[in-house]
Automatic annotation (TrEMBL):
<dbReference type="Pfam" id="PF01381">
    <property type="entry name" value="HTH_3"/>
</dbReference>
<dbReference type="InterPro" id="IPR001387">
    <property type="entry name" value="Cro/C1-type_HTH"/>
</dbReference>
<feature type="domain" description="HTH cro/C1-type">
    <location>
        <begin position="7"/>
        <end position="61"/>
    </location>
</feature>
<dbReference type="InterPro" id="IPR010982">
    <property type="entry name" value="Lambda_DNA-bd_dom_sf"/>
</dbReference>
<keyword id="KW-0238">DNA-binding</keyword>
<protein>
    <submittedName>
        <fullName>Helix-turn-helix transcriptional regulator</fullName>
    </submittedName>
</protein>
Length: 94
């Protein structure tokens, strides 16, 4: 089962609608729908919030998923690090 299916299945098991989950995560219902339809992947911070709200561990959410999800999260983390470094270097020159 992939991440999208796990989010949808777990959300339904706890009896929560897409709108309710979206409200708790401070995103739109359409965003939740895109996650569940495997069109986009939540970032790492949001995955952590999803695991809390749906009472499922991050390990369970990501286990046995394809490498696309993990690669995307890894890319997101690397991008944040490079933005942080760029900001620090830019601030130093100013």
């Amino acid at each position: 089962m992939n991440l999208a299916s796990k989010i949808k299945t777990q959300r339904e098991q706890v009896g929560m609608s897409q709108s309710e989950l979206a409200q708790k995560l401070h995103v739109t219902r359409q965003t939740v729908s895109r996650w569940e339809n495997d069109q986009t992947i939540p970032n790492l911070d949001t995955l952590n919030d999803i695991s809390d709200e749906l009472d499922i561990s991050l390990d369970e959410l990501l286990k046995n998923d394809n490498l696309k999800t993990i690669g995307s999260i890894s890319k997101d983390v690397k991008l944040k690090k490079s933005y942080k470094l760029w900001f620090i270097l830019s601030s130093s020159f100013i």
